[in-house]
């Protein structure tokens, strides 16, 4: 049996861009093709719409207030399965590699042709739904852990900080994963050691302190004034909660 292909007028496209003239232009061209269009002027507004509405494809700008495009894409890939197209004036190779590495399906540079954008949207919808017979699904397990500007990719075992890739060693990844899964919680040296190294903790061991220092060098803008990985004197270590960053 042929997979059911939803007609275009039943497809919902989200445009997330803080430039109103761009969203209005794309809305005009998409509605001519009988798509339903939703608009968001910030990443947070877009995320709220994605949680409330049945959206089939998202067109996302990188530079948006509240939640930037990279963070929004990472959050989408953690919770939802739908095609994502980046539409951005930041068209350097690093921006493209970062966006596609976070899970975007396509990248279109500004300035753009609205006809080309519509064509690429159609191609992604066809590839994602009509050829697969799929619908947006909740991911079985999170592929990424988020905390403000930090995105930890569990498949590649790398960290993205404000969209910049930071390579982690195996122990650094395991340590950061432990902390990011419980932001704000204080972990003792014993808890960290036994979770990360998976062996009994030796009271005189400096191993945890050394690994914390190495991770802090990669994580912090200024390791001498840490904003993310905090030492709680006499207790242990914690990762700052998202609302404290």
Low-confidence runs of at least 5 consecutive residues = 1-5, 133-141
Helix content: 25-40%
- Rough shape? elongated
- Major sheet size, sense and barrel closure: 5 strands, parallel
**CATH topology tier name of the largest domain:** Rossmann fold
User: How many beta-strand runs?
Assistant: 11
Number of helices: 8
Query: What is the second-level CATH architecture of the largest domain?
Result: 3-Layer(aba) Sandwich
Report how far the terminal alpha carbons are from each other: 52 Å
GO molecular function, one term: transcription cis-regulatory region binding
Domain OmpR/PhoB-type: 141-241
Subcellular location: Cytoplasm
Modified residues (4-aspartylphosphate): 61
Structural notes for this entry:
This protein has 245 residues and is α/β, with parallel strands linked by helices. It folds into two domains: 8-130, Rossmann fold; 171-244, Orthogonal Bundle (Arc Repressor Mutant, subunit A). Helix content is 38%, strand content 19%. It has eight helices and eleven strands. The strands form three sheets. Strands 2-1-3-4-5 form a five-stranded parallel sheet, sandwiched between helices. α1 crosses α5, α2 runs parallel beside α3 and α6 (170-180) crosses α8. Residues 1-5 and 133-141 have low confidence and may be disordered.
